[in-house]
Amino acid sequence: MKAWYLIHTKPRQEALADANLQRQAFETYLPLYIRVAKRRGAWRDEPGHRP
């Protein structure tokens, strides 16, 4: 069984932290889902995290 670690990131910096860890040859898991939100009258798809 592999050891795993949980990291704490600043808000909206999860993708940057994931890229930095992958560049250092770590295996990462970053679960995202697409959230549909209405911004300024237009519907947009935005990446989000499950609470």
From TrEMBL:
Pfam entry (one): NusG
Record key words, sorted: Transcription
Biological-process GO terms, alphabetical: DNA-templated transcription elongation
Annotated TM spans: none
NusG-like N-terminal domain ranges (all copies): 2-41
Superkingdom per UniProt: Bacteria
InterPro entries (UniProt xref): NGN-like_dom, NGN_dom_sf
Record-given protein name: NusG-like N-terminal domain-containing protein
